[in-house]
Every structure is written in C-alpha cells, then in structure tokens.
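Dear colleague,

Thank you for sharing your sequence with our group. We've completed the structure prediction you requested, and as agreed, I am returning the results in plain text so they can be pasted directly into your records. Please verify that the sequence below matches your submission; if there's any discrepancy, let me know and we will rerun it promptly.
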Amino acid sequence: MVRQPGIPTQTWQTFIRNHMAEIAAVDFFTVPTATLKTLHVFLVRHLRRVLKEYLAYYHGSRTHLGLEKDAPEPRAVQPQDIGPVASKPVLGGLHHRYCRDAA
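Please find the predicted structure tokens below.
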C-alpha cells in the first residue's frame, strides 16, 4: 500500500507493545522448550479467553443494523450532561467502546 502523506502510523514496536497480551508466537524452527501438550493447553486457554471477551463485546457493545443500531443486550442512551465521551479499548485495542464518563 502507498503510505498517505500526513497520516501517522504506528511502528511495529508500538503494535507489538499494544497487542502483547493477544499475540501468541511460535517458532517451529528452533528447539521446542515446551511439550506439544503444554502448548495446546496454553493455546486453548488463550482462545477461550479471547472468544469470551469478543462475545461480551459483540453482545454488549457492538451495534447491529437489524436491531436498529442497538446491541443484542440493550443499554440506555447516555445524556450529554453526564460527561465527555471516553474511548475504552476492547480486545487489546482492536475495537473500542465509547461511553460517557461521569464528571
């Protein structure tokens, strides 16, 4: 892709730092330090944690056009006088939930 002038992009180092908890790296060209069974347990736990977090986001925060731009678990509309809009990272920052912070 051609880089657009003036649009800042994050470096690989920043990306790795921001998503460290969600990344599982395996190098198959080195001597393994863990057994396949141990690695399998780790990957299954990791996958379950990520899927559980995604489902909570999908049902509680993500809007759906078929639900008139509401989430499957409805929530009240927050009035403007509560406070400013804040961004809360979800899934390691891959998605964000926006809500008003009480002043």
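Summary note from our side: Residues 34-100 form one domain.

Kind regards,
the structure core
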